[in-house]
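Bumping my old thread because nobody answered last time. Still need a sequence for this structure:
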């Protein structure tokens, strides 16, 4: 039965229907009906009746294209149909950040940071709710119009273009098929957006799996689905976005190591006056101020300690900064690290490349500590060797 029906179907339709006997019989029945002159006046009514019992809408769409004499659906048609079944488009995109990781100082195990962007876009009104997280820490929670978010937010431009442009590009025929491949064990088709981002869609479901930016940066599409308006999250943000701040040193004085415990009220941390790789260069007490971008939050004044070591191998200096609070002058940001990650628990350190060096941030039970060095190995080794300053 399957073989007989397959002989009567175009190869393009057979390829999509696969080995499902019910779908093959359905398509074969529609073709036979289209060939029957006596049945022509009622063929559309029968197609609708038969199709209502079909197990998949894809087969119905292909069959109707064939009976009506239209061209077979293109890859863009299939990709559009996969996300064009309801009013709201819900997506979750994830990107690994290789230059930002959490280090377990006891075991040395490293875990890369991940950036997650979840969005709900009302395709009719342009209403958008967008939540950005770095690991578990909230970066932004924005509810507004498409225009507001596209113009004023610091979101990765590639994600803006995908969120707003993927469906529109498919509808207007501006997305190009650039070939097939295997990605993470799955057969995919690559589609190229007008802005040169490439999107890998699953060869069976035609849902996006991966977004690749022109510079090679990749985002995994963890979820993309159409949902009813009632199921979307367009409530006012339940959690406020972090209050971003800036900080600077307003005064500093050199002191001796014996005076350090009196400055912070708790023992400071250091590596001793000299190690095989480090030589103490300076102790400095600093008066700090943090300034917040929101007018209702007053500037915060505090004190900190800066300890500078020379690296005996000639690889620059190692800088050590400590305070009782996570201060912006020492690269913390409103209870987040410099990389906008949650400050890790005691015994772990956030390690981040700053382009010209490496920055590590950690906390003990009493202090928030920032280390800056020329390479990650120096910063990690130094963090493991921290010990209290004695009188």
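Sorry it took so long. Here it is:
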């Amino acid at each position: 039965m399957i073989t007989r029906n397959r002989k009567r179907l175009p190869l393009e339709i057979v390829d999509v229907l696969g080995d499902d006997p019910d779908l093959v019989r359905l398509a074969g029945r529609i073709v036979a009906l289209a060939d029957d002159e006596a049945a022509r006046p009622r063929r559309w009514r029968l197609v609708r009746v038969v199709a209502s019992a079909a197990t998949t809408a894809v087969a119905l769409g292909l069959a109707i294209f064939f009976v009506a004499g239209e061209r077979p659906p293109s890859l863009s048609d299939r990709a559009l149909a996969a996300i064009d079944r309801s009013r709201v488009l819900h997506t979750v995109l994830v990107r690994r950040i290789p230059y930002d990781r959490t280090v377990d100082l006891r075991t040395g195990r490293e875990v890369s940071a991940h950036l997650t962007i979840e969005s709900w876009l009302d395709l009719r009104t342009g209403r958008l709710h967008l939540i950005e997280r770095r690991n578990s820490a909230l970066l932004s929670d924005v509810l507004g119009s498409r225009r507001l978010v596209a113009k004023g937010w610091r979101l990765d431009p590639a994600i803006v273009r995908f969120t707003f442009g993927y469906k529109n590009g498919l509808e207007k025929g501006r997305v190009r098929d650039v070939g097939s491949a295997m990605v993470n064990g799955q057969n995919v088709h690559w589609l190229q957006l007008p802005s040169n981002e490439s999107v890998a869609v699953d060869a069976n479901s035609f849902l996006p799996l991966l977004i690749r930016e022109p510079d090679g940066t990749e985002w995994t599409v963890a979820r993309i689905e159409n949902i009813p308006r009632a199921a979307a999250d367009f409530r006012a943000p339940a959690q406020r976005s972090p209050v971003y701040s800036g900080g600077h040193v307003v005064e500093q004085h050199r002191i001796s190591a014996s005076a350090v415990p009196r400055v912070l009220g708790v023992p400071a941390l250091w590596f001793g006056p000299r190690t095989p790789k480090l030589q103490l260069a300076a102790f400095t007490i600093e008066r700090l101020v943090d300034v917040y971008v929101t007018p209702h939050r007053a500037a915060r004044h505090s004190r900190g300690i800066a300890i500078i070591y020379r690296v005996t191998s000639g690889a620059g200096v190692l800088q050590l900064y400590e305070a009782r609070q996570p201060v912006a002058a020492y690269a913390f940001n409103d209870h987040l690290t410099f990389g906008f990650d949650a400050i890790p628990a005691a015994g772990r350190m956030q390690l981040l490349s700053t382009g010209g060096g490496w920055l590590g941030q950690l906390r003990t039970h009493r202090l928030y500590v920032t280390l800056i060095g020329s390479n990650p190995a120096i910063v990690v080794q130094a963090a493991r060797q921290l010990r209290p300053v004695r009188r």
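The CA atoms of residues 182 and 188 lie 6 Å apart. Let me know if any region looks off to you.
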